[in-house]
Amino acid sequence: MTSYLYNLFKNITNSIVFLLKKVETQISFENIKNELFAFNYSFSKAEFPSDLLKYIAIPFLLIIIISLVILLILNRYGFEKKLIIKNEVDIKINDFLTEIIFSNYDSNYIKGQIKLFKQQVPFKKRWCKGIILNKIITIKRNINGVNPHQMLLIYKYFGFHDYSNKLIKSRSWENKLLGIYHYQILEYKIKTGHIRPNIYVKNKFLKSNALIAVISLSDQKFDFLSNYEKQISYADELKILDIIHQKKSTLPKKINEWLTNKNSSVVILAIKLMIRYRETLTIDQISHLLNNTNSKVRKETFLVIRNLYIIEANELLINSYPKETDKRNKISALKTMGVIGDNETKDFALSILLGESDLEIKFEIVKCIAKIDPTFFNTYTTEDAAEDEIIKRIILHVNTPQLN
User: Fold this and answer.
1) How confident is the model at residue 29 (pLDDT cuts 50, 70, 90)?
2) How far apart are the C-alpha atoms of 363 and 125, rounded to whole Å?
3) Which of 74, 89, 258, 350 is deepest in the core (most CB within 10 A)?
4) What is the per-residue pLDDT for 311?
């Protein structure tokens, strides 16, 4: 019985061990299968990007690089070829313009030659037109002695007047400036009416250039300025005076209206023209100008009295000085008094000397008195020793300009 039980237990145990081994073997096989599958998947996953890079990305990049190199080479070749063409055209233009500008050909011959020349160069190209137009303007501006009428005809025969007209009608103020510049340099006076509306625009650059161009091209003695309401800059004043000087024009007929104009810029321009033409002012005109609310107008009035030596204005200067509020104008008035003044002026200057605390103005008062009476301060003294020392130092500077 015991032997039977032992054998039964042994058989059961062996069966269990066998079953466990079977199960373990099955698990190991599944694990191996899973591992192999995972390895195969990883290998496939790692190999896919490598193939993509090798067979697609790298060849694509190579094609792009080669294409860019070819484009750069072609572009460089095209640039060099275009540069050669431009240089050849430039030489042709120089030769042609030199011949027709500096030769005494009649207008019909010039017109015919220009028509033929336009067929010999790539005139329809914008760069070609630009070269020709710039050369015409440069010659007109920089070379004296060229016939302005002939230059204008050449400009028109090339058809550039249409181009300039389009520029002026453009909405862009830069284009308008360029068109105005063409008309001004080439003295296209008949087109002044096209420029005139631009002197009333808000853009200060366009307004300034249009004003100078209209004055430069105008044959109306600049009378339109009588109704001009915009301010004129100092730079434009100088340009206008220079244009008038170059044109050798006579003094505008409406100069008296300018002197009483509501626009202070026009008044100042009128005063400067009076100085330029050495035309004196009447006492009434000077009185009106000295009472002008604009300090710059009063300053120019002091200057015109001094430059034109209008001694009749001495009393007006004395009367206007106490009402003057601008320091620089006071100094200018005292300088003018020193030039045209007399004993009455000296007495007036002496009456304000001690009460003046500003050293700059005090300096001009002393200088004014010294100009009228150079020996006055040789014996002059006050009850204030400090004031005497100040006046003494001022006199030293007045008599010794090197110390200033």
Assistant:
1) very low
2) 68
3) 258
4) 93
Dihedral angle over CA of 248, 250, 255, 259, nearest 10? 40
Model confidence band, residue 328 (pLDDT cutoffs 50, 70, 90): very high
Rounded Cα–Cα distance for residues 95 and 88 (Å):
11
Question: Does 283 score more than 50 pLDDT?
Answer: yes
Helix (H) or strand (E) holding 323: none
Helices (H), 121-224: 126-142, 148-157, 160-169, 173-185, 192-195, 204-217
Got the DSSP string for 217-247? Answer: H--STTGGGGG--S---HHHHHHHHHHHHHH
Residue of 241, 191, 188, 190 lying closest to 212 (CA atoms): 241
| Burial profile 221-243: b = 16 or more Cβ within 10 angstroms, e = fewer | bbebbbebebebeeebeebbeeb
pLDDT at 256 over 60: yes
**HSE value, Cβ hemisphere, 13 Å, CA-based, for 129:** 14
Mean pLDDT of 191-208: 89
Distance CA 118, CA 89 (A): 11
What are 257's two structure tokens?
Answer: 């209206």
Q: What is the pLDDT of residue 144?
A: 81
